[in-house]
Amino acid sequence: MAFEGLADRLQSTIKKMTGKGKVSEQDVKEMAREVRLALLEADVNFKVVKDFVKKIKERAVGTEVMESLTPGQQVIKIVKEELTALMGGEQSKIAVSERPPTVIMMVGLQGAGKTTTSGKLANLLRKKHNRKPLLVACDVYRPAAVDQLETVGKQLGIPVFSQGTEKNPVDIAKEAIEHAKAEHLDYVIVDTAGRLHVDENLMGELTQIKADINPDEIFLVVDAMTGQDAVNVAETFDSTLDITGVVLTKLDGDTRGGAALSIRAVTHKPIKFAGMGEKLDELEAFHPERMASRILGMGDVLSLIEKAQDNIDEKKAKELEQKMRTASFTFDDFLDQMEQVKSMGPLDELLGMLPGANKMKGLKNVQIDDKQLVHVEAIIQSMTKKERQDPGLMNASRKKRIAKGSGRPISEVNRLLKQFDEMKKMMKQMSGMQGGKKGKKKKG
Ligand code: GDP
């Protein structure tokens, strides 16, 4: 999970502060030391750490804490505010050109995730903002890059402007913009060439493209897992190209968080988006406050709700609720519900968005295994239609057949049936408690 190591350390540090009726200078000193170590261990830039700790220390011994009725809480609030500020404070929005199309130039080193992110961004603009994007293949050095972008475009059903690898990238980009105008497309996302390392030729070419197409945004795509290297890359690209924002990819695999916490402070450029997985819908707008909240174990309920809204079919959810209330819930409905939850992403990622979930001992050691869901699915899929509607039919020979069909032991089949039975009982009780009152619905 993203930031896991840092989250663990910071959370145990601030836990000591919670509920403190008095905060002494010694307490602050100790906390500051622990925060410092936690950040350094997370591979945050040394200078950034120094400034950060200094700020916290100053504020924590100041009047806002001393005069507070809950000094411990106040210190935690300060840490959260400063973490938020470190990552850029407010969420940074994407530009909209007054004269469409809005042109976004994507730059970055090879392998950082530029092509994937171009596709993800186009997808997000279309899905969330109702925009009509055009993807442009300007990485003319690697024929495979053009193919890759075309594949991504095809997968998403988003048009890709490409002219092979013979032409000059500047000309391709210019023609693409004309094409977008003619087709009334409102965003042009230009996927440029990358190299394995920063080199002069690359920078020269990107500078030329920038001068000729005058983009509204220049997004630098960096791999969060490369930590301080990503920060150095960002500094170099920024000094040549004056980028407008950063997209951090592979944050899903970044347990440390050094790049996310340093880039803004070092380059003064905002992190606009975060890549949270390989799939083309796994790009999130970067919200510094929500991220700080996640790191400190306060959860990120807002993102969770947004995810649910994006992925859960409202009509289906209403039907399910109705079924639960009348206790006519079947295994088919159960399967449906599982599909919807699964579409929201890996379970441990979701759990990380719940306040305090990291701290719950029981949960911490449970390996939340998406495979278990696959097993449950296999068992349900091995039932006949009749059995799914009426689990009461189940007898020993049916159970045996289901176990064989799903490749799971009978004990697991039994367990699922029992759980389902208990769930139905609970639903009955709940709808009984609700009585005739239809107005007040309780979700859960
Ligand atoms: P490019 O050379 O910069 O265009 O990089 P690609 O777009 O080809 O991506 C390189 C690899 O990183 C691919 O295997 C992508 O699937 C993977 N990748 C990109 N973004 C993410 C992300 O946010 N999370 C994860 N886990 N993988 C990613």
Automatic annotation (TrEMBL):
The UniProt record lists the keyword Aminoacyl-tRNA synthetase: no
InterPro entries for this protein: AAA+_ATPase (IPR003593), P-loop_NTPase (IPR027417), Signal_recog_part_SRP54_M_sf (IPR036891), Signal_recog_particl_SRP54_hlx (IPR013822), Signal_recog_particle_SRP54_M (IPR004125), SRP (IPR004780), SRP54 (IPR022941), SRP54_GTPase_dom (IPR000897)
GO (cellular component) term, any one: signal recognition particle
Catalytic activity: GTP + H2O = GDP + phosphate + H(+)
EC number per UniProt: 3.6.5.4
Subcellular location: Cytoplasm
Principal subcellular localization: cytoplasm
GO terms for MF: 7S RNA binding; GTP binding; GTPase activity
BP GO annotations: SRP-dependent cotranslational protein targeting to membrane
Region entry Disordered, spans: 429-444
Top-rank EC class of the record's enzyme: hydrolase
Keywords: Cytoplasm, GTP-binding, Hydrolase, Nucleotide-binding, Ribonucleoprotein, RNA-binding, Signal recognition particle
Residue intervals of the SRP54-type proteins GTP-binding domain: 270-283
List of residues binding GTP: 108-115, 191-195, 249-252
Domains as described in the record: Composed of three domains: the N-terminal N domain, which is responsible for interactions with the ribosome, the central G domain, which binds GTP, and the C-terminal M domain, which binds the RNA and the signal sequence of the RNC.
Protein purpose: Involved in targeting and insertion of nascent membrane proteins into the cytoplasmic membrane. Binds to the hydrophobic signal sequence of the ribosome-nascent chain (RNC) as it emerges from the ribosomes. The SRP-RNC complex is then targeted to the cytoplasmic membrane where it interacts with the SRP receptor FtsY. Interaction with FtsY leads to the transfer of the RNC complex to the Sec translocase for insertion into the membrane, the hydrolysis of GTP by both Ffh and FtsY, and the dissociation of the SRP-FtsY complex into the individual components.
PANTHER family reported in the protein's UniProt record: SIGNAL RECOGNITION PARTICLE 54K PROTEIN SRP54, SIGNAL RECOGNITION PARTICLE SUBUNIT SRP54
Subunit structure: Part of the signal recognition particle protein translocation system, which is composed of SRP and FtsY.
Family affiliation: Belongs to the GTP-binding SRP family. SRP54 subfamily.
Protein name as annotated: Signal recognition particle protein
Organism name: Halolactibacillus miurensis
